[in-house]
Design goal:
By secondary structure, the chain is of the alpha/beta class. The protein has eight helices and seven strands. Helix 1 (3-31) runs antiparallel to helix 2 (41-55) and helix 5 runs parallel beside helix 6 (168-176). The longest helix is centred in the first third of the chain and has 29 residues, at 3-31. It is globular and about 55 Å long.
């Protein structure tokens, strides 16, 4: 894409993504006051993701979803290089709750929806991180799965290499004794870079759900080994995609 075309394409993408959210926002407002209705956010997220990507011509390649059960709860652990990662989980097999940085709550309208349905965390505050994890565990108890980005935010300066993982996602899965699902997102950082004024590239969005990892019988002593295992699964898949693409 030429730079001018990228600029025009980025404007079109912004119109589509924001416009669709504004259309869906009244439906979010309807479900927000009633806790048991929050599960319907899954359908709104799915509509937003599939429709927006189709309208801007971004194809999707979702792999491994057949390994997962819509009736089971999981903790999804994914690499986090782009804001597009959040939208990607509109393709999860069932309702998910996100744990996201508190700055997301400052985005007009979207932030209101996010903090009412999902979990925000101020990673600079140990107390807030603890309370956010407890809130996330409570929401898992409402028959929802949890999406956590174990890098703790978009921190890598050496893309597509991840930074080391934090403990929260693994503590959540072990506390609830539910399976972890590593998820690789190889391309989102190319499509929507984490920049102050990003230019969007039209590229296939690939998302790989790996085999669930059972935490039955695990304790917090198992976290270091579990973190390393999940890290290697996600990173090796990302590396393989980019090696093939070269």
């Amino acid at each position: 894409m030429t730079n001018l075309f990228k600029q025009l394409y980025t404007i079109w993408c912004a119109i589509v993504f924001v416009g669709l959210f504004l259309i869906l926002f009244p439906f979010f407002l309807i479900i927000i006051p009633v806790q048991r209705w929050h599960k319907f956010s899954f359908y709104l997220n799915r509509i937003w993701a599939t429709t927006a990507l189709a309208l801007v011509g971004i194809q999707t390649d979702i792999r491994g979803r057949e390994k997962l059960s819509a009736s089971e709860q999981y903790v999804y652990c994914a690499n986090h290089f782009s804001l597009l990662d959040i939208l990607s989980f509109g393709f999860a097999p069932s309702t998910v709750i996100y744990v996201g940085k508190v700055s997301l709550a400052k985005i007009p309208l979207f932030g209101y929806m996010f903090k009412k349905i999902h979990v925000t965390v101020d990673r600079a505050s140990i107390k807030n991180r603890y309370h956010a994890l407890q809130e996330a565990l409570d929401k898992i108890g409402e028959d929802k799965s949890l999406v956590m980005f174990p890098e703790g935010g978009i921190y890598s300066k050496n893309l597509p290499k991840m930074v080391r993982f934090k403990d929260g996602a693994f503590r959540a899965a072990i506390t609830k004794q539910i399976s972890l699902v590593p998820v690789s997102l190889p391309d989102n950082w190319i499509i929507l870079p984490d920049e102050s004024l990003p230019l969007i590239s039209r590229k296939k969005m690939r998302m790989i759900f790996h085999e669930p990892i059972s935490t039955k019988g695990m304790t917090f002593d198992d976290i270091p080994q579990l973190k390393e295992k999940v890290y290697q699964i996600i990173q090796e898949e990302i590396d393989e995609f980019h090696t093939v693409a070269q």
